[in-house]
Design goal:
450 residues; alpha+beta; four-stranded mixed sheet; three-stranded antiparallel sheet
């Protein structure tokens, strides 16, 4: 019998609003009914708002690509993240967001990937060295993937390794921030006036304040280096010196605190989730592990051109992102009356785009819950890749670092499997959604040197 990757159970078809809120607070994934894996659109009503889950490719295209200004980011989700992310590009809408993207996007263009590759490579080498000290013993791989992803972010953004004192402090504080489950805030359910307190958890506010203070220290130091002409040519310098082509403005040091916070959240948290689940899949599908390990023998000296030769690793990583998309759901808000699939959509409705359900949709994908990296070469896989695959969102708000992630993930995966044979130990992990898709009790592997 073919082994299936772990998937959390769905809730019963009908539950009370109170029960749903309790389930939602415990875990976003298992709080949803099974029917969403077959539905083209589903409506959910509460006394506070209406939400609509969209799995219809035409509707997703309308919301994300054709009319994104009519469906801005929902403020309900941003309420919980505001203490850390402030006015970052992840939360803003309209002209503010467009200006931020005009300044930020050039730092992540194709040519910059080549420039940041040595820093990624060094982080990968440091990860392998760290794991060698843990060989032959059970390792909680989510923690190690988080360490590796944070190292990549700090090396590429500020040219400092995770061992740097401030970088290490940010990493430790962020772990506390994640555990406080900041998204689960009253603002996710109730539309509150601006003057009303948001009742954020004390631990959430304390961690956010500490992280922002540490990031401010780094950005202030970099601003001084830029003014002195001694700043390294890394992502932080690129972003802080890029002028908006329309206004000529640059981001201030205060603006950079918001942006670095989201770079760390998006670039570290999502990458860690993706790498950890990919390594687990390699542990339970050893035939694919060996294919990646064999391909990884092409890794020699640091050379960006090697990425063209890591095709198996890339397909494996893409399949892992399908099964375990780091950001399981995205929420937009309707600003105009709409009619979708013969239903009237009121202004202010929450439009839920769910990679978690879309990537496993039973009417779209062949073997939707199975692990099959060869699917990308099939007709069904190619069609679904175009219409039902969005681990980095789509349209103008597609993740700025999507290309960055698709270099980092396959590279770190290959570097690790070149050196280690891995096997799963302990109980099967249960996927849950915190800030990203993680395991309820960690992912435990044993790494044996090859």
């Amino acid at each position: 019998m073919t082994r299936m990757p772990p998937k959390p159970p769905s809730r019963p078809a009908k539950v009370s609003l109170l029960k749903y809120m309790m389930l939602f607070r415990a875990d976003l994934l298992s709080s949803q009914p099974e029917r969403l894996f077959r539905a083209w659109m589903a409506e959910f009503r509460t006394p506070f708002f209406r939400s609509y889950l969209l799995n219809d490719a035409r509707l997703i295209k309308t919301v994300l690509k054709e009319r994104p200004d009519d469906f801005p980011k929902s403020g309900r989700i941003s309420e919980g993240l505001r203490p850390l992310l402030g006015n970052s590009v992840f939360l803003t809408n309209g002209e503010v967001w467009k200006q931020q993207r005009r300044i930020i996007d050039p730092a992540f263009e194709g040519g910059r990937l080549r420039d940041t590759f040595p820093a990624m490579w060094d982080a990968g080498a440091a990860t392998v060295a760290r794991l060698q000290r843990m060989a032959d013993a059970p390792v909680e791989i989510e923690a190690e993937a988080s360490h590796a992803a944070a190292d990549v972010i700090f090396r590429t953004l500020f040219s400092i390794p995770i061992e740097h004192e401030v970088a290490g402090q940010v990493f430790e504080e962020f772990r506390d921030y994640q555990r406080s489950q900041p998204i689960l805030n009253i603002g996710a359910f109730l539309k509150l006036p601006k003057w009303m307190p948001r009742f954020h958890r004390r631990s959430t506010k304390a961690s956010a304040k500490m992280i922002r203070g540490l990031i401010k220290q780094l950005t202030d130091e970099r601003m001084a280096e830029i003014e002195a002409g001694t700043a390294p040519d890394d992502l932080a310098t690129k972003i802080m010196t890029t002028r908006d082509p329309e206004t000529g403005e640059t981001l201030s040091a205060a603006d950079m605190v918001d942006q670095v916070a989201i770079f760390f959240l998006a670039g570290h948290e999502t990458s860690a989730s993706a790498l950890a689940w990919t390594l687990y899949l390699m542990a339970i599908f050893p035939e694919w592990q060996e294919k990646v390990a064999q391909e990884a023998q092409v890794l020699g000296e640091c050379d960006f051109k090697v990425m063209k030769r890591l095709k198996v690793s890339r397909d494996v990583f893409r399949e892992s992102l399908r099964l375990y998309p780091p950001v399981p759901m995205m929420v937009r808000e309707s600003t105009c009356p709409e009619r979708f699939r013969d239903r009237n959509i009121p202004v202010g409705s929450q439009m839920v785009l769910s990679p978690w359900h879309l990537h496993r949709h039973q009417r779209l994908w062949d073997n939707p819950d199975g692990f099959d990296p060869t699917r990308w070469e099939t007709e069904n896989g190619r069609q679904c890749a175009r219409e039902a695959y969005m681990p980095f969102s789509e349209g103008p708000r597609v993740c700025t670092g999507a290309g960055f992630a698709m270099v980092e993930g396959p590279l770190l995966l290959s570097m690790i499997l070149k050196q280690f044979r891995i096997e799963a130990v302990g109980p099967e992990p249960v996927p849950v959604a915190y800030l990203t898709v993680r395991s309820k009790d960690g992912i435990w592997l044993r790494l044996t040197p090859r």
